[in-house]
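dumping this here before i forget
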Amino acid sequence: MKQKHFIDSHKGATAPAVLLLIWYFGQWENTTAWIYLAIHGSYGIMWVLKSAIFPDKTWEAKCSIWYGLYIWGGLTMYWISPWIIMSTPIENSPMFLGFIVALFTIGVFFHYAADMQKHAHLKLNSGNLITDGLMAKCRNTNYFGELLIYLSFALMSQHWIPLAVLATFMAIIWFPNMRRKDKSLSRYPEYAEYKKKTSLLIPFIW
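structure:
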């Protein structure tokens, strides 16, 4: 099996899992709970669609069932936020929920649009460094989008643990992947100049 099979199945299971938490803790009248279900659930559905339409080669690698279960277990850490929201329960203000939805929406744009640009470029202009569009000012625009997405999930819980989970994933998965990407891109003659003009993760900042 491939890593994507475990990742995709977990992403697709997010909406049912959150709905189960709403049922278990009786949070049918909690607006925060439903907004969380809407954004994290739809993110999972979009991920599965993306994986089918323009997949990321990173997750095409084969893996054992045990490593796949390890991936599943790790991704389940992202469900701590809805658990806190439903079990506490947490009810955010309309203004804060509006901010969360905006943050999530902007993150979705950067994440999926960047992945689509990379997919199209590799298909139509393979062998050349991507230096335009969403990659013009940031080398990892897709991860920047994911940062905004997962930050929106974590902030809704009003708790430090989901933020710590996000920071842990960034430290052990995101940043190593970014370093490997930079090392791979360094084979292009124009890479050194491109690196000087771009940020690693957050456009115009860092």
